[in-house]
């Protein structure tokens, strides 16, 4: 009965959390209010009955917190590393006549969670094994962690925090073009868990899988009983199998066959004795506990020959090189291609056509090239996007070089393009979530941006879609109609031209007196003559409008829109004209900093995000604050003024 209750509790928590999210964030409904309230009451009753409340429960809203640093915490029990082997024979020797538990060695971040009086009171990272970092507020946002349990004594457990492959991919795809991609789920998980802002952690879908009771819990003889007990308290535990030295080889083979179907990264298995008393009697060495050992996957390496390098354009515009080689069998499957990820790796491997390479599967799943034995490359990256034919550019991030397609209208980038086009600072079309846009694209309702203004042609089909309906359709169409009256800079920004943000769009529009034709025909030299526009932006901007497909997209949009009348061009005498401002801190005379920025720009001034030698004024109502911007302004001799000073500076121009 208890197991059924816990399963239902987990099911309702996930379902209602999703329903609340799409209602609040995407303005859509996946269930009626009646059904929501009914399930809510059922969940609340189950939580009261079991004493378990999971982190994503709609009955418990966890407040987000921003901290300046993560406090250091000393572990009550030192966390040692595990001894490792790649030999099954060593696992057999380790077991002798004992029963063992074999479980996944999850590739994430180990967390120690402490509960007291039924409440999660502390979560700490492993750190160096002796001292970790307090991430309690972040842990409370994990997708599946219990915030309360029906055990009132002290309980300390260990678990592994992970981000699934599918969530990892979604997060990478959601990044802007100028943001560096995360390398693997473990790195992303580590950065997410150790965030200073718990709201960011909440968006990363971190999950915790418990694998050990450190202190407390009911008196039990085996670790498998402890894990079963944790399940009944609301924890998700790492998957495990009971083994003996006679069955260990067969169980390892089962795990190795299952890993390719899993959505999480595992770099091996963990074998531990099931008998708790026996485990405690063994003690530990200075480096390893004696009751557990890690089994690392034996990388099966095959030699093959590179046939070609393919270039795949993603929906973010990133173009990834993919090595295609003569087929080889690895870990029981045929492999003939491996992602090379970026230009830096391609260059490091010196990959050329016909090269002899060694290939393996990372964590027994992802094909990788480990070594190039002939090194005749690297092959030259394409100058044109393989999907749309637009020019490509190379971007140097902190640690790697990447190749991008500059054409936001590229078919490969359509979903990303529509998400950006409808965003708040662009066309500001509410009620169009990424999931809804994906549905419309798949159904053929959206071909190009102007298709948004003809969705009424598909009303009957749209109101029948899951998560939509008459009310959602009506709200969406109201928002679409409202977006027809838009500022020209917002429209230019909405086009998604690489490296052209809203402020850059404002500079360009102002320079060409809000003349769309002049903007579309602007040459690189015209653009570089604008203060704040460099050669890279000028090149991508002019190249965007040099493509006939993009010109057609804009012309079709011009038939649908009416541009808002911009403020009068500031006079040459305006004391704000051509001055560069930075705004920091709270504002009192304006609604917010954006309104103050808009005022400065309407008077011919420019607002940037950081203080530099070219900054004329830093606006800060607390001129004596010790903020980094104040310090920088004082170092460079930049004038620090208050809002009142700015209003006086405006004079009669306001």
Number of domains: 5
Total strand segments: 26
Q: How much of the residues is beta strand, in percent?
A: 15-25%
Distance between the ends? 71 Å
CATH top level label of the largest domain: Alpha Beta
The helical percent reads: 25-40%
Q: What CATH architecture label of the largest domain applies?
A: 2-Layer Sandwich
Q: For the CA atoms, what is the radius of gyration?
A: 29 Å
Please give the count of helices.
Answer: 24
Q: Name the CATH superfamily classification of the largest domain.
A: DNA ligase/mRNA capping enzyme
The pLDDT mean sits at 84
Which word captures the global form? globular
Spans of at least 5 consecutive residues whose pLDDT stays below 50 are: none
Class of secondary structure makeup: alpha+beta
């Amino acid at each position: 009965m208890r197991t059924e209750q816990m399963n239902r509790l987990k099911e309702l928590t996930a379902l209602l959390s999703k329903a609340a999210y799409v209602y609040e964030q995407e303005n859509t409904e996946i269930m009626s209010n009646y059904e929501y309230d009914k399930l809510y009451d059922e969940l609340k009753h189950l939580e009261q009955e079991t004493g378990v409340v999971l982190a994503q429960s709609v009955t418990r809203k966890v407040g987000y917190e921003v901290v300046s640093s993560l406090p250091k915490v000393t572990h009550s029990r030192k966390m040692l590393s595990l001894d490792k082997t790649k030999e099954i024979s060593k696992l057999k020797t380790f077991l002798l006549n004992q029963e063992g538990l074999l479980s996944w060695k999850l590739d994430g971040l180990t967390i120690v969670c402490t509960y007291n009086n039924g409440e999660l009171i502390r979560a700490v990272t492993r750190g160096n094994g002796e001292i970790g970092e307090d991430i309690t507020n972040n842990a409370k946002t994990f997708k599946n962690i219990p915030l309360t349990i029906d055990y009132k004594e002290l309980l300390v457990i260990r678990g592994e925090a992970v981000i699934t492959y599918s969530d990892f991919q979604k997060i990478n795809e959601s990044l802007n073009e100028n943001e560096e991609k995360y390398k693997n789920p473990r790195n992303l998980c580590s950065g997410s868990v150790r965030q200073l802002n718990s709201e960011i952690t909440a968006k990363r879908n971190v999950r915790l899988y418990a694998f050990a009771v450190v202190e407390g819990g009911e008196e039990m003889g085996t670790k498998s009983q402890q894990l079963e007990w944790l399940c009944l308290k609301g924890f998700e535990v790492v998957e495990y199998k009971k083994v003996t030295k006679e069955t260990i080889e067969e169980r390892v083979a089962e795990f190795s066959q299952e890993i390719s179907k899993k959505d999480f990264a595992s770099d091996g298995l963990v074998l531990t004795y099931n008998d708790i008393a026996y485990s405690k009697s063994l003690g530990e060495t200075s480096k390893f506990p004696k009751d557990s050992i890690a089994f690392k996957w034996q990388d099966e390496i095959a030699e093959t020959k590179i046939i070609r390098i393919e270039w795949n354009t993603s929906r973010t515009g990133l173009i990834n090189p993919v090595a295609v080689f003569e087929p080889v069998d690895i870990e029981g499957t045929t492999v003939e291609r491996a992602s090379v990820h970026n230009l830096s790796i391609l260059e490091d491997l010196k990959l050329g056509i016909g090269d002899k390479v060694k290939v393996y599967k990372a964590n027994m799943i992802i094909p990788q090239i480990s070594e190039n034995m002939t090194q005749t490359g690297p092959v030259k990256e394409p100058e044109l996007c393989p999907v749309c034919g637009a020019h490509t550019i190379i971007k140097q991030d902190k640690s790697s070089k990447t190749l991008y397609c500059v054409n936001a209208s590229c078919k490969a980038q359509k979903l990303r393009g529509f998400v950006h086009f409808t965003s708040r600072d662009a066309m500001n079309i509410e009620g169009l979530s990424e999931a809804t846009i994906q549905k419309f694209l798949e159904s053929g309702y959206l071909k190009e941006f102007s298709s948004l203004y003809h969705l009424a042609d598909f009303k009957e089909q749209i109101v029948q879609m899951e998560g939509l309906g008459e009310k959602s359709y009506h709200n969406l169409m109201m928002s679409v109609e409202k977006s027809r009256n838009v500022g020209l800079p917002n429209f230019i920004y909405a086009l998604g031209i690489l490296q052209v943000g809203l402020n850059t769009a404002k500079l360009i529009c102002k320079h060409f007196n809000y003349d769309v034709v002049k903007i579309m025909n602007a040459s690189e030299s015209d653009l570089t003559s604008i203060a704040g526009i460099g050669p890279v932006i000028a090149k991508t901007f002019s190249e965007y409008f040099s493509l006939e497909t993009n010109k057609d997209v804009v012309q079709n949009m011009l038939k649908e829109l009416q541009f808002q009348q911009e403020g009068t061009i500031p006079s040459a005498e305006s004391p704000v004209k051509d001055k560069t401002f930075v705004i920091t801190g709270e504002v009192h005379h304006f609604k917010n900093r954006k309104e103050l920025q808009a005022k400065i720009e309407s008077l011919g001034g420019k607002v940037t995000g950081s203080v530099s030698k070219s900054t004329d004024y830093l606006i800060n109502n607390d001129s004596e604050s010790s903020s980094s911007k104040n310090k920088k302004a004082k170092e460079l001799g930049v004038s620090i003024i208050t809002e009142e000073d700015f209003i006086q500076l405006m004079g009669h121009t306001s």
